[in-house]
């Protein structure tokens, strides 16, 4: 009787442990599923919104094309379009949207198209609110799309605002002190979350620590406020910058003053 009672006690004590383990596994799996679905869902919503916005411009044109096809002298074409017009118009709108995107991409590949786009950008930059929205959106899209040419050479860390705290910066070029021959680094320190704003500093190259991050990884970290950060960083040990001649700006000719007669 005593042995049976002890076995029942063990079973009763194990039930909460089993239920707790099951709840923990279920919670972990649900969180993992959410972390998998959320990026896919956000991507789908953003792409769908942009595509629907562009399709709303091309859909009226698709209706005009469908009406023209309904007036075709070939009765088979006219009958087919009239029967499936509710299917044909969305397909035409999608095809016209893809064609429009292709034309825009084609324009950016030639000099004339780039000048047109630069003209529109200058107009946007003259409107205060539109300027901020356009620059921020363009920076985000081009950065995450991998087509943003920033001119940044390396991702580095500097001591700021004091030793023991680091600031993410971008090395743009390396100069040489004319008097001492010391190497100096031109670095750009961005503000979070706007990559287009920040300030430039000239820092001794030996006080700059190089990272193994790519420019894209650093940009994502800065713009997300640290949410999208690389897994590792060399924080405690300073890594000298492995510079080369490509980082140095071309030498400038000394300016000679004209002697006045």
SSE blueprint:
Elements: H1 2-70, H2 75-83, H3 85-107, H4 111-125, H5 128-145, E1 154-159, E2 166-176, E3 183-190, E4 198-204, E5 209-210, H6 215-223
Antiparallel strand pairs: 1-2, 1-5, 2-3, 3-4
Helix pairs in contact: 1-2, 1-3
Characterise the protein shown here.
The chain is of the alpha+beta class and 261 residues long. It has 2 domains: 1-107; 154-247, SH3 type barrels, CATH 2.30.30. It has helices spanning 2-70, 75-83, 85-107, 111-125, 128-145, 215-223; strands at residues 154-159, 166-176, 183-190, 198-204, 209-210. A hairpin with a 7-residue loop joins strand 3 (183-190) and strand 4 (198-204).
**SSE class:** alpha+beta
H-E string: HHHHHEEEEEH
Uncertain parts? 253-261
The amount of helix comes to 40-55%
Mean pLDDT: 77
DSSP strand content: 5-15%
Widest sheet: strand ordering: 4-3-2-1-5
For the secondary structure, the number of strands is 5
Rg computed from alpha carbons, rounded to a whole number of angstroms: 31 Å
Shape: flat
- Describe the sheet with the most strands: 5 strands, antiparallel
Number of helices in the DSSP assignment: 6
> What is the number of independent domains?
2
**N-to-C CA distance:** 124 Å
Concise summary:
55% of the residues lie in helices and 13% in strands. It is built from six helices and five strands; from the N terminus they run H-H-H-H-H-E-E-E-E-E-H. It has helices at residues 2-70, 75-83, 85-107, 111-125, 128-145, 215-223, and strands at 154-159, 166-176, 183-190, 198-204, 209-210.
What attributes does this structure have?
261 residues, alpha+beta, SH3 type barrels, 2 domains, 5-stranded antiparallel beta sheet, 6 helices, disordered C terminus
